[in-house]
Amino acid sequence: MTYPEDLEPSLVAEPVARLITELSRLPGIGPKTASRLTFFLLRSKADQVRTLAQAILEMREQVRLCERCFQITVQEFCPICLNPKRDQSKICVIEEPLDLLAIERTNQYRGLYHVLHGHLAPLQGIYREHLKIDALLARLRTEPIEEVILAMNPNTEGEATAFLLLRDLTPLGLRVTRLARGLPTGGDLEWADADTLGAALEGRREY
Fold it and tell me: Sign of the CA dihedral 162, 165, 169, 171?
């Protein structure tokens, strides 16, 4: 077993060290934070720990991807795709499910979504075929979409993904727009405040 940096294996029980190791694999969780979380759980009531463990297992077993937009859901289709009041003529293309939550918080957009589940990153082995691009093109050929909003993150990978999508979308003759430049370059949509993101939606431009 590989132990987190600064953790002396002989000083802690093996199950504790193993949990620290697994928690430290999570994004944004370093060895020290993983250690604090582990010892917090160790001091917690058994029922509380079981509830947390059960919630993690149920999430992994029950959550699936929407058959239409690939947002996370527990049904065949997500609530947004099932909502007839959403604007069926607009589709906002995003990188990750958390981006949808960020945009919904603005209360500025009432259309549909399509989640790519990533962005182009050749150095990390992520290419076009790893994204939900072909599924997007299939939707655009069968659904009454008039405008495609590219809501990629304003960074190098997001720009590359947007250019690739533009190349694929141009032959379809649809209106393609991009979020306005109120967003900081290099940032992620999920961290943008609602006012800034809302302004970016309102000021979107032809792409």
Answer: positive
